[in-house]
Amino acid sequence: MQGLLQKKKIIVTGGAGFLGSHLMEKLRERGCSNLCVADRTDYDLRDRCEIERLFRDFPPEIVIHLAASVGGIGANQASPGTLFYDNATMGIELIEQCRKAAVEKVVLLGTVCAYPKFCPVPFREADLWSGYPEETNAPYGLAKKMLLVQAQAYRQQYGLNAIYLLPVNLYGPRDNCDLQKSHVIPAVIRKCFEAKASGQAEVEIWGTGNPTREFLYVKDAAEAIALATEKYNGADPINVGSGSEISIRELAKLIARLTGFTGRLIWNSSRPDGQPRRRLDTEAAYRAFGFRAKTDLETGLGETIEWFRTKYA
């Protein structure tokens, strides 16, 4: 596959979305021109007939499955059933149709939310099944985790070359800034900008600020997926992250400084914190396909904030 990616017919589900749009750029940089974006406005991937139609319209050699129903803690609490159904159904139906169409390679994305709530830090792939996920996003995490089970079962029974990547929390330009659905970085950026614009002296943030998270710049994540598509053909899941960890409290302070918000950060401890800690062991990705994150958090936040300023000013 390595060196021949540009000759392949590739479908990227969710290719018009946050991560997908950056991956499309990485693929085009590699000379890939035979690309199809499977956008939700054109194909409902929860519907088997729609996937069959997609494969008739564009018979793929490689399928990279990024399409997902996602959201922050609030969205996971409000719609756990929807998030479970949408993500499980899309993945299960898509993998089955890839098998039937004899697709050469399927690239699946899981989520750090699939890891146990009290997983030893750093999270290692071998610990993925050692406990139940954090409750606020368990339905989403488990739905995505089932795709790993299916991928490994289909590899064993049918010889399907399906690989499974476990990305950590992503951020960057083109992220979702809807406060009802967004994750912490775009939410705090938006709140700081709006507070500055309206002269507010305070910004409220959910939780205590004590949990830690690992963040990966979206362009680095897209590069990791492209590398894995080129070079990795194993059955084992692979973590994709930056390998660094920061508390939500320190993250919010950093965003406030970079946006120029000088007011107070108010922590609403009645809101859930989510998982206590998150940091991945990223050595397997380096060994398997040579990936190391290149963008440090402050640089990535600066570029994200500048994108937000340009888009929403």
How are the SSEs ordered, and which strands pair?
Layout (H helix, E strand, L loop, with lengths): L9 E4 L4 H12 L5 E4 L9 H10 L4 E4 L7 H6 L1 H21 L4 E5 L28 H21 L3 E6 L1 E3 L12 H15 L3 E5 L5 E2 L1 E3 H14 L6 E3 L5 E2 H12 L4 E5 L14 H7 L7 H16 L1
Parallel strand pairs: 1-2, 1-3, 3-4, 4-5, 5-10, 6-9, 7-12
Antiparallel strand pairs: 8-11
Helix pairs in contact: 1-7, 4-5, 6-8, 6-10, 8-10
The total strand number stands at 12
Q: How widely separated are the two ends?
A: 44 Å
Q: Would you list the SSEs in sequence order as H and E?
A: EHEHEHHEHEEHEEEHEEHEHH
Give the biggest beta sheet: 6 strands, parallel
**CATH classification, class level of the domain at 5-171 and 215-244 and 278-294:** Alpha Beta
Mean pLDDT: 94
Percent of residues in helices comes to: 40-55%
Unreliable stretches, pLDDT < 50, 5 or more residues?
none
